[in-house]
Every structure is written in C-alpha cells, then in structure tokens.
Design brief:
By secondary structure, the chain is α+β, with helices and mostly antiparallel strands. It has one domain: Gamma Fibrinogen, Chain A, domain 1 (Alpha-Beta Complex), CATH 3.90.215.10. Helix content is 13%, strand content 29%. It is built from five helices and 13 strands. Strands 1, 2, 3, 4, 5, 6, 7, 8 and 13 form a nine-stranded mixed beta sheet that branches. The longest helix is centred in the N-terminal third of the chain and has 8 residues. The N and C termini lie far apart (58 Å). The relative contact order is 0.19. It comes from Araneus ventricosus. One of its GO terms (cellular component) is extracellular space. InterPro entries: Fibrinogen-like_C, Fibrinogen_a/b/g_C_1, Fibrinogen_a/b/g_C_dom, Fibrinogen_C-term_domain, Fibrinogen_CS.
Length: 215
C-alpha cells in the first residue's frame, strides 16, 4: 500500500502546468520547505517502492509507479531546481525510463539539455536504485545510501542527490544534502526540486486553437 496522501486517483491528480515549456508534466518527486524532518527522504526500500509523502507538498510517487508509467510509452524527464536565494535552473533529458523491481529499478537516462549542467548521465545512467536497507551501488567500501542519506541511483557514489537530507543552503557536511553537483556543488543543498515527466510525443497530441487576430 502506498504511503502517499492526497488526491492520487489518476495521472491528472499530480500533473502540473509549467510555463517554461509547452505541455503538461507528471510530477514524480518534490522537495521543498514543508517543515518535514530533514531526513524525511531517508526511507527504506519498501517506501520508495510504493511511494510516500503528500502530493500537495513533498513526496515520491513510488518506483513501481515510475516503472509502470515509463514502460507504457516513451518519456522525457525534467528536473526543476531552485536555490535558497531564489535562483532557478533546469535539466531536461529527452530519454528516461526505469526497469522493474527484479532489476532493482535500473535507471536509463540520456540526451541532456538545459542550464543546470548534467549531473545525471555520467554517474547515474544504468545504475540500480539503492536505499539505506538495500545496497545496490558499485561502491565497494560502503553504502552510498547510508553515507549520503537518501534513496537514489547511486554508482560510487553520486553527482546528484535530490533525495538527500534537506539542509537548505550551504552545509559543512559533504554531499549528503539535496545536491546537484554541476550547479551548486556538494556543499549547498537546494531549496526546491521537482522531477517531472511527459510523453516524448506530447507535441503530436496538442490541440491547436486559433486565436482571433487583432484588427
């Protein structure tokens, strides 16, 4: 059973309109200043499998749901990132899907564009998902999930850690915050993040409406 709360009856319940690009996105993950414990995303495998949180606030939609969605059709994924000072960046990957639980939700992600820098492809593409109670990373000297306090597609270990500790701003600890290394490095935790997907063929499905021309 999912630990998500809110109106999660169908895809439309967690769609958000973004005005920086055309089309609707389905939100998979959100972090923000919602007064949760800073280790709220330091969850076990079962929670990441089914999902947790409040869809109106911070949440993870669940790896089973991500697998089901991204294996029905081709998807792209967008990461919207905001720093504590209000600065915003984004990263868009034109190809995104994950495998099923038997294959440890292995991530497939490529074809980057955006202004946040690519903190996913080199370190996380083709990596299995890991949590504090299931170590599937390639780090031989320990558990990346235990070290960096999140559930993620760790290798040995990461260039991004969006499910890490919510430290909100600069921190002395190394790489255990909500980090996106190619933008803010390993010692500054982001204020807000969203991971969101849309079908790659969404442009073909848009209904075009003619608008009256000024006379």
């Amino acid at each position: 059973m999912s630990n998500l709360t809110g109106n999660l009856s169908n895809e439309e319940a967690i769609c958000t309109r973004t005005y920086t690009m055309t089309g609707d996105f389905l939100v998979l993950q959100r972090r923000g200043n919602f007064r949760r414990p800073n280790d709220y995303f330091f969850q076990e495998w079962a929670s990441y499998k089914t999902g947790f949180g409040d869809i109106e606030k911070d949440f993870w939609i669940g790896n089973d749901n991500i697998f089901a969605l991204t294996n029905q059709r081709l998807y792209s994924i967008r990461f919207d990132l905001k720093a504590v000072g209000g600065e915003k960046r984004h990263a868009l990957y034109d190809t995104f899907w994950i495998d099923d639980e038997n294959n440890k939700y292995t991530l497939h992600i490529k074809d980057y564009s955006g202004d946040a820098g690519d903190s996913m492809t080199a370190s996380h593409n083709n990596q299995k998902f890991s949590t504090k109670d299931q170590d599937n990373d390639s780090y031989k000297e320990g558990s990346c999930a235990q070290l960096y306090k999140g559930g993620w597609w760790y290798s040995a270990c990461h260039s991004s850690n969006l499910n890490g500790l919510y430290l909100r701003g600069k921190h002395e600890s190394y790489a255990d915050g909500v980090n996106w290394n190619s933008w803010k490095g390993y010692h500054e935790s982001l204020d807000t993040t969203e991971m969101k997907i849309r079908p790659k063929d969404f442009r073909k499905n848009l209904i075009l409406v003619d608008t009256p021309r000024a006379r």
